[in-house]
Amino acid sequence: MSGSLAERSEPDPRTASGPLLDVSGIKLSFGGIKALDDVSFTVDSGQIVGLIGPNGAGKTTMFNCLSRVYVPNEGQIRFKGQPILKEPTHRIADIGIGRTFQNLALFKTMTVLQNVMVGGHCTTASGFIGNALRLPSVRREEDELVGRAWSLISYLGLESVAHARVSDLPFGTQKRVEIGRALASKPTLLLMDEPAGGLNHEEIGGLGDLIRQIRDERDITVLIVEHHMSLVMAISDKVVALDFGRKLAEGTPAEVQKDPEVIRAYLGTND
Amino acid sequence: MPTRNPADMLQIAGIEMVSWRRIWLVAGLVIAIALPFLFEGFTVFQLTRALIYAIAILGLNLLTGFNGQFSLGHSAFFAIGAYTTAIMMDRWEVAYYWTILPAAAVCFVAGFLFGLPALRLEGLYLALATFALATATPQILKYEPVAKFTGGVQGLDVFPDDSPVSFLSNDQWWYYFTLVVALIAFLVAWNLVRGRTGRAMIAIRDNPIASKTMGINTALYKSLTFGVSAAFTGVAGALEAIVIQFVAPDSFTFLLAVSFLVGLVVGGIGSIPGAIFGGLFILLIPNWADQISQGLSWAIYGLFLIGAVYVMPAGAAGLVRLVTMRLAKKPSG
Ligand SMILES: Nc1ncnc2c1ncn2[C@@H]1O[C@H](COP(=O)(O)OP(=O)(O)OP(=O)(O)O)[C@@H](O)[C@H]1O
Ligand SMILES: [Mg+2]
């Protein structure tokens, strides 16, 4: 712990100029399965980066490493130049990495508004004593958080369901609530795991616009896992392709689409 | 701009739900204040004990209902609270009203410390660990080195001052004293639950991994919730010692812990006002069962319990919610 604190206080020369996210040599196995096998890539500040690959390629596992839900067996992850793997999981939101989940991980007994407010947990600080007494500072913090949650709810067009229990909502709407909850933590980097799940063709177009808006208006860098190729290729500045835990390609959408290894992985031919 | 919750705007008899809630709150308070003048001494004493149990159940509810941590051991914290008060009054002749907060503090520490290893346990395993706590407590209270303070098997007598108000009997006075403590306890619980702390507690119950990802220090929150829960139940124990004027190890058996759990379920898991119904249930129903037939009192209690769970699967609070939902209409125009 003391080691990581010392590292953090030293000015890192790469903070200013280097990539926002620097993933290097990540390996993680579950029993015999190599879910991630020496994966390295970078995400620059202000980019939208797509992470693609067939089912079971290791995309969600990569997200779980980035949000410290899993600890890789080997490798290093740097965010704003600082190593993050030594941080406890609950510090990651505070550091500036927010995420949505592929199979929904909402707080199912809570309303949409409450879910978004939990997303703002790391931006607020009141504790048990302050809340027990409902001090004026707690009230102010709560008002500010409610205001911020509401502006996100209207940004995402969720006003009409704001007071509904999330478990009563359709899958696609719940995915949108997840985006709101992640944005409430004011992230620098947003990880989105298959945000197009449960959406129809038209809605997917809207999602693409939304992701661009999130990047442009809110200054948030986006790393997105998505099977919907036309969406990923349309919005990404860069695409990273995985298969069987290995990185196949990294480059512009055009480059990755032409990559013979990527084509082979998607056509499903074995070598 | 924030819009109002449509559920609050529903009406019964032309009056909005928010206003109904206020009406019930005021009516409940008026009834609570009037009760000692409507009933004779023993009933007032019983109502006092029901309030005390309500506070204990409220504590359990914070832990189990809101945070999802199961406890079969809350009789232990009830005992620690009761003995803190009894020992302070017996040894140091502290006035009873100065023992409530120390009892809360001691139980908070005990609960927090127990909550740390409990972090590694979930569901049934946590139930077993807390069960061990409940069964060990009466024995520890009787154990030789500890018995010096606790009075061992004989327990301790405590002698609180008589009612300082001339027109109130002692029974009435203890009722009002308990009522004030209970009101504070319910207000504090409500404040905890509706704010940042409560959202974190519920989030952990609903989805521990997502909670961590949202920046909630789940380990710290779970052990703090354990401490806070124990503190509430400890306050109830302290009140019990004062009101009964006696503590003994065998009042704090595993059966008491199960009673709290019964009160929690019957009142409504995750409902704050439900704890009052739970307290009344676990105090009154065993008495009634006893009056109906001493030989079969447990069987009758069991029937009441099955009946209650059958009629109110989500507890008394759930039944109230269901009935209001049936009656409520959208505002016209
Ligand atoms: N907790 C776990 N325990 C065991 N195996 C796991 C675990 N998590 C992932 N795996 C395995 O790791 C591999 C990668 O899974 P992952 O979920 O990362 O794939 P993915 O690229 O997200 O796939 P999809 O597109 O289907 O979501 C799979 O073989 C999966 O079975
Ligand atoms: Mg996945």
From TrEMBL, chain A:
Source taxon at top rank: Bacteria
Group of enzyme by EC: hydrolase
Classification via Pfam families: ABC_tran, BCA_ABC_TP_C
Protein keywords: ATP-binding, Hydrolase, Nucleotide-binding, Transport
SMART domains in alphabetical order: AAA
This enzyme's EC code(s): 3.6.3.-
GO terms under cellular component: plasma membrane
GO MF term set: ATP binding; ATP hydrolysis activity
Sequence ranges assigned to domain ABC transporter in this UniProt record: 21-269
UniProt-recorded name of the protein: Lipopolysaccharide export system ATP-binding protein LptB
Organism of provenance: Oceanibacterium hippocampi
